[in-house]
Write a structure and sequence with these properties.
The complex is a heterodimer of chains A (about 300) and B (about 425).
Chain A: H1 19-52, E1 55-56, E2 62-65, H2 69-75, H3 78-111, H4 116-128, H5 131-141, H6 148-155, H7 167-195, H8 199-207, H9 212-241, H10 244-249, H11 261-270, H12 276-306
Antiparallel strand pairs in A: 1-2
Helix pairs in contact in A: 2-12, 3-7, 3-9, 4-7, 7-9, 9-12, 11-12
Chain B: H1 2-22, E1 28-29, E2 49-54, H2 60-75, E3 78-83, H3 89-98, E4 105-108, H4 122-125, H5 135-138, E5 151-163, H6 164-170, H7 180-194, E6 200-202, H8 206-215, E7 221-222, E8 225-226, H9 230-245, H10 251-255, H11 265-269, E9 275-279, H12 283-289, E10 294-296, E11 309-316, H13 323-333, H14 336-346, H15 353-358, H16 365-380, H17 383-390, H18 394-409, H19 415-434
Parallel strand pairs in B: 2-3, 2-4, 6-9
Antiparallel strand pairs in B: 4-11, 5-9, 5-10, 5-11, 7-8
Helix pairs in contact in B: 2-14, 6-7, 8-9, 8-18, 9-19, 18-19
Classes of the chains: A mainly alpha (about 300), B alpha/beta (about 425).
Chain lengths: ~300, ~425
């Protein structure tokens, strides 16, 4: 009997050695289509927004150079400062409460032995609903006389709350609805961070006699810090840019009590009399605010990481 | 060091790009030189296409499509009817103008934002064409040179709707003429006797509030600018403030929608109020959806009678490649026969002098009775109402009027203070829009 041996040795792996330049150029070539779109639809409009804020126009076609006059007009407009106050109140409450609620929810979901996926999905559903629809639904639910919320409160003997017609309650309403709408997204980020923490650390802490609070303070919070920074940055951006659900929930009312910065920009840019210059100047101020806050957040987190 | 150099280079490149963009005006720099009007022979229309940007109130679409079909057949052209939501009308039109892609013809509710872009129609339609329309609505379509830049295509009139069943149940007569005091007394009596939540409701709209101002003899605007008489405005609006304070008018409805317009038609349709101040465009919906007998009552009188006018316009744009065809289309859609078809189907009032004089047959009895009341009020409406509504600052001033009343309803200011502030804002708007 003869035996035939077939050699099936794989040819050696070769690396493409299209020259040093080829290797260096390839990633950029892949990025070009995306960057072209990004440049056309994000960078150019943003830069043009800065430029347009130095002109006045009521039709978007003819422009009159006014220099910094749009900024002067905005900064001396009492309505603008009311809007700034509302925006700061909303954004601070949204960021602080939103992060805390998302953190608590993530911790609770993470502690579940069963049904984690179910709870994760349930809390995430509001993120998937159109903000305009969220506003409409809550407008109906928070209606003073026949709304679902006040009806439910009535069962416990609590008098009807003027959610949408009282300055303070309307602000409370948009903060709560804003958190309800975005919380699931932040919770997912924090949940991913929680799941990345080594359980052995908790086990060791428990063996050393640490209680729940001590574990949370000494292990969870420091190790979750990168995720918390992401959530705080995103919540800051969302908080300052909130508009769509507020527009359908309160319309910025009552009497401007829930009018935030983006609505101020929208009303100047798209409602008669149209003032594109003022609207874009407002957009630039909003950009600078959000950019500065994000930068501060990032610098603080970097310093902590270094420590 | 190398990293530092790279970052510096990147920053410089970004800065250079910014300067490049910032160095150019974001669009065309203002040019006041007059634009030449193109003309064309109507025989050249055959085979051409026209775009008509349109929003619909519902029943008018059918009439518009029918009339477009007739126009296409008559001139051997194609009309692209582009229907868009009313909320997008101004933004979309401005965007299209910016992109050099304006429609040939558009249906508009206000000309304020487009005045400089509209085609002067006189060279195409003739100097005497404007005489075919009522003088009131014509005020809104003339530019500073008294040229016609649009055609008033249909007219609206504000007025009170009454729940006839509730009035009958309460044993209260609907008179043929009443004052504001009499109307509100009747409303409160019906409310008491029938147990409705409210006595009176109205749309949250500065246009509707202007009806009451007009009846008390004042307007926000006239040809000279700010025309608000604060004493008269206070007399006009105080009853509304009192009604909302007493829960006879839904204050939550007024405050709960912020700066958005809100219609109280659902409150009326739910039978929650015996009287609802709105306008003739509600007739078609109430004919279809109301589960009770309703009627249109005459506008209440105070210092003067009549309602407050509004309406829609058909206008062509200077950017149109076929201005003569666009103008011809506007003429066709607004000749006596076409306008009668349109207004009877849409439940609108005619703008043509001949149709207003001869009257229009709306087909069914309820609509006819309702529209006859609006038409009668149209004849009583002072010319100042048309002038106020035609002023370029009317729309933003109307928003300020709603805000002024909202401040009072919310208890943040007294009515006189709010009206004084409103007057200052009207001055600023007039100055801004006249510059």
């Amino acid at each position: 009997m003869t035996t035939t041996t077939i050699t099936t040795a794989r040819p050696p792996l070769t690396r493409w050695t299209g020259g040093g330049w080829g290797m260096k150029l390839a990633p950029y070539l892949f990025l070009i289509p995306n960057m072209v779109i990004f440049a056309m639809f994000t960078i150019y409009p943003a830069l043009n927004g800065f430029n347009m804020s130095l002109y006045e126009s009521n039709n978007g076609r003819t422009f009159r150079w006014v220099g910094l006059d749009n900024y002067r007009k905005i900064l001396t407009d009492a309505e603008f400062w009311d809007v700034v106050r509302n925006t700061v109140i909303y954004a601070v409450a949204f960021v602080v409460l939103g992060t805390l609620v998302a953190l608590a929810t993530a911790a609770l979901v993470n502690a579940q032995r069963r049904g984690k996926t179910f709870f994760r999905a349930v809390f995430f559903i509001p993120v998937l609903v159109s903000p305009v629809v969220v506003g409409l639904i809550w407008n109906w639910m928070l209606e003073r006389q026949n709304g679902l919320v006040n009806t439910a409160l009535g069962w416990f003997g609590i008098p009807a709350v003027p959610w949408l017609v009282d300055d303070t309650w309307a602000m409370v309403a948009i903060i709560l609805v804003g958190i309800w709408m975005q919380m699931g997204f932040y919770m997912l980020i924090l949940l991913a961070g929680l799941q990345a923490i080594d359980p052995a650390l908790y086990e060791a802490a428990r063996m050393d006699g640490a209680n729940w609070w001590q574990q949370f303070r000494v292990i969870t919070v420091p190790l979750l810090q990168p995720s918390i920074v992401v959530v705080v940055v995103l919540a800051t951006i969302h908080g300052f840019q909130s508009f769509d659900f507020i527009w359908t929930l309160t319309g910025g009312g009552p009497v401007g009590a829930t009018t935030l910065m983006v609505q101020y920009i929208y009303e100047n840019g798209f409602q008669s009399p149209i003032r594109y210059g003022i609207a874009t100047a407002g957009g630039v101020l909003l950009f600078l605010t959000v950019f500065t806050l994000t930068l501060v957040n990032w610098l603080i987190s970097r310093r902590r990481e270094a420590v | 060091m190398a990293l530092m150099r790279k970052r510096t280079l990147a920053a410089l490149a970004l800065g250079a790009s910014a300067l490049l963009v910032a160095g150019c005006a974001p669009g065309q720099v203002e040019d006041d030189s007059p634009q030449e009007v193109q003309t064309a022979n109507p025989e050249d229309f055959a085979g051409k296409t026209l775009t008509y940007m349109y929003f619909t109130d519902g029943p008018d679409e059918e009439a518009t499509r029918q009339l477009i079909g007739e126009f296409e057949e008559k001139y051997d052209v194609t009309v692209d009817l582009e229907i868009l939501p009313y909320a997008d009308l101004v933004t979309s039109t401005l965007n299209r103008l910016s992109g050099g892609n304006a429609p040939d013809v558009a249906r508009l509710t206000s000309l304020t934002d487009f005045r400089d872009d509209l085609l002067v129609l006189d060279p195409y339609l003739g100097d005497s064409y404007s005489a075919e329309f009522l003088p009131g609505p014509l005020q809104a379509v003339k530019n500073a040179d008294d040229d016609m830049i649009a055609v008033p295509s249909d007219l609206t009139m504000n007025g009170p709707f009454v729940n006839a069943e509730l009035f009958e149940k309460a044993g209260v007569e609907i008179p043929e003429k009443w004052t504001w005091d009499e109307m509100l007394a009747a409303a409160e009596e019906v409310k008491e006797k029938t147990g409705t939540p409210y006595a009176f409701a109205m749309d949250k709209s500065g246009h509707r509030l202007s009806t009451i101002l007009s009846q008390y003899g004042t307007y926000m605007l006239n040809a000279d600018g700010n025309a608000l008489d604060i004493d008269k405005a206070e007399q006009a609006l105080q009853p509304l403030v009192d009604l909302m304070a007493d829960d006879d008018m839904p204050a939550d409805f007024w405050l709960g929608s912020g700066s958005r317009y809100a219609g109280a038609n659902e409150i009326f349709l739910a039978g929650e109020t015996p009287i609802y101040l709105s306008g003739n465009w509600q007739v078609a919906q109430f004919s279809k959806d109301a589960t009770f007998d309703w009627a249109v009552a005459p506008n209440p009188c105070a210092a003067q009678c009549g309602g407050f006018p509004g309406g829609k316009f058909m206008a062509a744009f200077k950017q149109s490649e076929n201005p003569a065809l666009a103008a011809e289309f506007i003429r066709f859609m607004n000749d006596a026969e076409s306008q009668e078809t349109f207004v009877t189907t849409a439940g609108a009032l005619p703008t043509r002098a001949d149709l207003s004089e001869s009257g229009v047959d709306y087909g069914d009895e309820t609509t006819q009775a309702a529209m006859d009341v609006f038409l009668a009020d149209l004849l009583l409406t002072p010319e100042e109402g048309f002038a106020a509504n035609a002023h370029p600052a009317f729309s933003p001033a109307a928003t300020e009027l709603v805000d002024a009343l909202s401040v009072v309803v919310a208890g943040q200011a007294d009515l006189r203070t709010a009206l004084t502030s409103l007057s200052e804002k009207i001055d600023a708007l007039v100055a801004e829009l006249s510059s």
